[in-house]
Design brief:
This protein is an alpha+beta fold.
Amino acid sequence: MDSDGEIAKSTASCEYSITLTAAEWKEAFSRTNRKMKSGWRKIFAKKLGTNGFVCTPRFDKPNIKKGERKQKCYFLICRAKCTTRICGRQFHIALPAEPKAGDPVLLLVRTYGEETHDGTIETAQLQMQGDACLAMG
């Protein structure tokens, strides 16, 4: 909600990029298995939050390019949408080419839909997983 008591809405679809350091990418992606590791959702959600989005994204299974035949395909494509019922924001995340070992990763993010959040109607938070869940007891 803003200062006038109105529900915060944003319909503008935009395109921007987020950068993962080499250490963050290594923590999110396994080069040997060519799969995303278990903590990748938390890393991506944190990076989306640094751009001013208040959404709590739920990520779909990422599509990772296999083989060399499809040369014009993105290396990684992932979709996410906000977990609250009243928000229609969707995120499309793409990585054009496989990064070299030790290089930072530049992900292209496109947002679609209307961002609507009202804490009095519904709140959402990310589910704790792995070590964070065990630390809580």
